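Protein entry
_____________
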Amino acid sequence: MPRSASDHLPFTPGELAEAARAAVAEGAHDIHLHPKDPQGEDTLLAEHVGAAVRAVRAAVPGVPVGVTTGDWVDPSAHRRAELIRSWTVLPDHASVNWHEDGAVLIAETLLDVGVGVEAGLFSGTTGPKRFLAWPGAHRVTRVLAEVTDTDPATALVTARELLEELAGFGGSVLLHGEGAAAWDVARMAVERGLDTRIGLEDTLVLPGGDPAVSNADLVRIVAGYPSR
């Protein structure tokens, strides 16, 4: 997400660290971040991944830190795998979007270097089927079940269908949504006793429509949802 999307997006290692500290203070138990290069673009270069991960770990010791490996960083899975192998500071986990070409290569590379895998399974894609067919599915840290349906009128149905697709997976599932449906999906996850995620990557507005000014504001709201 470009900085132009919101004045409140954290980009530099220092900004990411402060955002993580504030989010954890409001109840976050895990951090997902996108290391940036000096131009503000997502990157997998070792120096930038290392700087971001080190800064966040110093701010929130003991809290797991994960990064993205999405194909928008580099469309070549082989180049992304090479970059991952060059990392000198390892995050605790990294997300791999299973509908993207080369997902297995990226996942196996992460596991080889000692980084946990979050399997990103998007609704409306072949990702869930491809993931469940992978012999290494049991090795992932968890599944990120991502509801890409942003229509609040239909997103919860889409979420249920996605979870049904994953019924054969026996591991941990984190359910989350995006855009106008992010809040409804987060509430559904909490009510079902599932992990969830919320941040400025997922939505830039509060439930009432006001602009969100920090990740911590979003976390505070979800942390207040009643669980089952």
